[in-house]
Amino acid sequence: SKLSTILNNIGMCHLNLSEYEKSLEFLQSSLSMRQSSANNNNSHSINKLDEAASLNNIGVAYFYKQNFTQALEYLEKSLSLRKEYYASRKNTNSIIKNSSDFDLVLAESYNNIGMCYMELEQFEKALDNFQACLKIKKRQNNIKIESDNENSDF
Q1: Contact between residue 81 and residue 48 where contact means Cβ atoms under 8 Å apart
Q2: Confidence at 149, pLDDT banded by 50, 70, 90
Q3: Is the separation of the CB atoms in 31 and 50 below 8 Å?
Q4: Burial 41-65, CB ≥16 within 10 A → b, else e
Q5: Residue 8: in which H helix or E strand, if any?
Q6: How many C-alpha atoms does 10 have within 13 Å on its Cβ side?
Q7: When you count CB atoms within 10 A of the terminal residue's CB, does the N or C end of the chain come out lower?
Q8: In sequence order, which residues have a C-beta less than 8 Å from that of residue 83 and are 6 or more positions away?
Q9: Under a CB-based contact definition with an 8 Å cutoff, are residues 120 and 62 in contact?
C-alpha cells in the first residue's frame, strides 16, 4: 500500500540520519502492513517483493547498529522471499518484468549478507555470498572475468 511505502521511506530517511531506533520503528510498521497485505493475497504476488524490501531495509538498519546477527536474520529472510518469488515466476513461464532490476535486487541481498558475515569474521560464508553476487553481476553485464578463483581487490 502507499502508506507502507511512506512508512518505509520515512524509516530510510531516519536510517540515513543515523537515527537507528526511529528508523526501525517506521521500517517495522511498514513490514507489518506489507506482511498483512501479502498474506491476504497470492503468496507469490508482488506484495512479497515489498515485504522482502522491508526485511532488507530492517537488516541494513541492524547492520548500521552493528547488530550483525540480527541483521543477518532479516537479510536472509529477505533473500529467501526474493528467491521464492523469482522461482515462482520462472516456474509459471511468466515474463519477469524488468528481470535485470530483479537481478540487481538479488545481488544486493547477497552483497548485504556477505558484509554481515565479514563483520562476524565468517569469511567462508562471506565469500560464498560475494561470489553469488558476482555471478549475477557478471551474467547481467555479460562480462567475462579472467579468474573466478583468484582473490583480488576490486
Answers
A1: yes
A2: very low
A3: no
A4: eeebeebbbbbbbbbbbbbbbbbeb
A5: helix 2-16
A6: 16
A7: C
A8: 106
A9: no
What cell numbers appear for 22 in the block?
526511529
Average of pLDDT values for 125-132?
A: 97
C-alpha cell at 104: 540487481
Q: Rg of the chain over CA atoms, in angstroms?
A: 16
Of 23, 7, 25, 5, the closest CA to residue 15 belongs to 23
Judged against a pLDDT cut of 60, whether residue 82 lies above it is answered with: yes
What phi-psi label fits residue 124: left (phi over 0), alpha (psi between -120 and 50 degrees) or beta? alpha
Report the predicted TM-score, pTM, of the whole model to 2 decimal places: 0.83
Amino acid, res. 53: A
